[in-house]
Structures are given as structure tokens and as C-alpha cells.
Design a protein that fits this description.
581 residues, alpha/beta, five-stranded parallel sheet, four-stranded antiparallel sheet, 52% helix
Amino acid sequence: MANMIQMAKEQITKLVNDAYLAAAAKGELPEGLTLNGSVEIPKDTANGDYAANFAMASAKLMRMPPRKVAETLIANMQLDGSWFASCEVAGPGFMNFRMGDKWYGDVVRLVNAEGDRYGNCDIGKGQKLMVEFVSANPTGPMHMGNARGGVLGDALASVLQRAGYDVWREFYVNDAGNQIEKFASSIEARCLQLVKGEDAVRFPEDGYHGDDIKELARLFCEKYGESWMDKPQAERHEMMAKFGLEHNLPKMKSDLERYGIKYDEWFYESSLHESGYVADSVEKLAERGYTYEKDGALWLKTSEILRENLLKQGKKPEDIDKLDLKDDVLRRANGFYTYFAADIAYHRNKFEKRGFDKVINVWGADHHGHVARLKGAMDALGLDGEHRLDIVLMQLVKLTRGGEVVRMSKRTGKAISLSDLLDEIPVDAARYFFNSRPESPVEFDLELALRQDSENPVYYVQYAHARICTLVAALAAEGHAVPSVDEVDFALLSTEAERELVKQLAALPEEIRLAARDYDPSRINKYVTELAARFHRFYNSCRIKGAEPNVLEARLCLADTVRKVIAVSLEIIGVSAPEKM
């Protein structure tokens, strides 16, 4: 699980430090210093592949001009046996390093040695981590926000697994509380309209107005006739909610599986209430002095908790006063616990009962105000919500077709659901387009997602994979099998197109590391799109078929290595790597 870019930077640091010790021993630089500085990949690599600023960062310590320090270091540097062919002074004192043949060959060897594990790292060190995502209300079809959250959560979980975390995917089913009562009331009203006539029964204004509720009512009446009408309302509602959930949840599961998403667990809110865990969690907060009673309800001292946290973060009291912090109801005067109380219990369950080291929730941007409150509640329970609970907030999705905003499905004439979307475009396209930076709104062009040309990024990347598969098969038919890396002279890969392609291969471990660190799986999209672009440039400028035998072998091995890395990258974001297109 090596990172060739990081290893190259580390080797440069060692070369510079060894050069300093050699120069200091000769009296050319002052002794006993610790060099400051860093190594970066410059935007323009025309003058070198890596740039080190040690001479500039350490010049003051040495009381010498930076260029003089750089020249002295380079004069004492031993590049023999390293990955570097040369080092030159540039500008005010940068040291520009250029890669030698060995590094390029070692990158290709490493990719082939690690195979499907290529790019993996161990920043997670096996920590137990949960990613909770989608968790859509089970009272209706999943919408575009759920479609985006599904991909972001699933791709993020994959990235974190690759980064060495023990990852658990979870869907939280809100099958209790007000929204389920509203769900049952909505079904009941539609059932009554079917029996008595639409005009005879008023539909509740705050009910769920979708056609899916009408369909559930029709199916319910089909199954139970009018026998339900004699039952007490509470029993009737329980029947209807159970019937609706038993119909909706399997559909949600099948839609998400069609979308390539499988969960380790579907966790039910009702289990928290039935086990007494919600009541127990609220009692724990009371024991810690974070609750009070008012107007018959039990309240959480949210404002006090948040104020304490903000003061710890160095915020000024007068600035905190401007935030208008408010407390939250945990248990209503009627004895029912709020959704927030259940959410607190659910997250306590994640940390305390199931032992997750860290929890990540993927939420819509409209949940922004809930983030600090939930973290604060975990802090109040002694569970360190500030550091162990992370929230990824994602922005809205706008569907377009031909430049026009699309809100309705062609097939149903209703608001587009996840199911409608997947009826219209391939799963691969949906996953690729939705896996973009979570903090940025997405404009999803339905026509572009169906195009089979280089304008469609997912097609462009998949075509690169298929193109290599076709090339490998065609050359195999002519007697040119992909050679073992041990049989290839990688020094023959000397053109700019070849070397830029190898550099991109080397970048995947770093991209996975950064994607995991920043909770941004869209980095993998950008990475593999650039890899495909560099492959297409290489393919068009470097002849493979008909080249000299040794050159053909080296280029064929490189192309097949690219194929493997494209497949690994697409697998991370849940997109297929077709062999033919």
C-alpha cells in the first residue's frame, strides 16, 4: 500500500538533508541546524517534476542568500541510486527535481503488484466508522436529494474503506413519531374518500398529498374492504401505518439496490422507543443537569450546551449572544418524545452501545441548523460529539433537459423520483454525475447523461477502459500477450505522453487519502477523468500496434496497467467498467 508520490517527496527530503550534512561537514554550510521546508508538485512541470523550498525556508538560519544555499546543497547531493535524474536551482532558490527512468518503471510495477488493492492506504488504522446516508422518510417515494445523498454516502464509504477504516453503512428508518401518524391519517382520509366519495371527506391540509398515498389507500381497501371502519381510530391508524410501511420499505430497498447501494443495516427508530432507549437517553441528560420542565414539557438546555462549546472554541460572549440560541423540547406535555429526543438516542446508540469510533451523516443542506444541536447533545452525554460526529451537508440537485429545468417525469407526469430517474438514464451515469462536491449544487443534464461521446464524462472514462480491452484482445490475437512487468524495459517509455500517464497512475493513492481526509469522494471522479484523458492522448500519439517489439511490449503493459487503475477507480464510486461499448 505504497504511495509513490509521497515516497518521492520523502526521498527528496532525505537527499536534501544528506546534502546539508555533507556540506556542513566540509564547512560550506553552518553545522547543527534542522532544515525547514517542504516538497510540492509544481503546477507547471516543464522545469521539473518536484520543487523543494528548503533553501529559501532555511536561508535565514544559515545567514546566506537562498540561491547560494540551494547551489551548495545541489553540489553536495548524491542522486545516484535515487529516483531522480537531475536537480537544478530555479528562481529565488527553489530546487527543481526531475524524475529518472526507474521511478516510472517502479510505478507500473507497484500497480501490478498490488492489483485490486492499489491505492489503498491505512490512515483509518481499522477505526470502526459508520456512514449513515439517505435515511429517507418511508412515507413516500425517494426524491433527487436522496438520489444524490445515496451516491455521496456510498462512494464516501468506499473511499473510507480503501483508506483503512472498518466501515458500516446504515439507513435510519423513521418509522415512529409525528410523520408516521400523519402518514396513517393521510391513508385513512383517502380510504374514507374511496368509501364515501371524495367531496364527502376533507383531506387534512398537513397530510401527504401525493398519488402514492391514493394508491396505498386503494390497495388497503382492496385487502380489507370496509372492515377497518368499525375499529377505534388508534387501531385503524396502526393498521394503516403498518400496511403503508410494509409496502414502501421493500420498494425503497429495491430502488436503492438497483442503484447499486446495499446497507449493512436498516435501523428502525421504533426499536429505540420499544426498548425504552429514548426514555433512558433523556433520563441520562436529566441526570447530568441538562434538562428542565416548562409548560408540562421536558426541555433540553441546548442554548447552554452550545454556549459552553462556543466559549471553548474561543468565541466572544457578545458574539454568542447575537446567535439567539434556543432550547429544544425532548418530551411533550402529552408524554410523547420528540424526533430530536429519538435522534439523540439513536446517536448515543451508535457510540455507546455499538461502539463506533466515529460517525458520519450525509444530510441535505436544509438540516444545517440541526448539526450543532446534535453534536452538543452528544457532548452533554459525554460522547464527544464535536470530534466523533461529522456531518456532510449536500446542496440541491437541479435536473435539466435541453437547457430547461425538469421537475416532472415524462412517464408519470409527477415529480421525478429516484425510480423515475433510473427508468430514464443508466445507473452508471446517475452515480457518476451525482458524485460531485457535496457543498456545490448539481445541475444534472439528462440529455448529456445519455450521450455516447466524449462530452459525457462517464462515457468518456468507460470508453477508455473498453478501448484498452479491445486493444489487448486484438494484440493477443496477433500473438502479443500483455507481458509481465519483469520482462519490460520501462526506460523505453520516454515520451511526454507516456510519462504524464504514469504520473497520473501514481496519483491514485494520494487522491484516495485526500478524499478520505476531506470526505470528498468526487476527487475520484476528477482523478479517473484525467486518467482517461491522458490515456487517450497517449493512445493517439504513441503507436502500439506495429511498434518495435520492445516498445510495443512496454506500451502494451502500460495500457493494461491503466485499464486496471480505471477499473479500481470506477469500482470505488460504484460505476461499471465495461469491456465493450
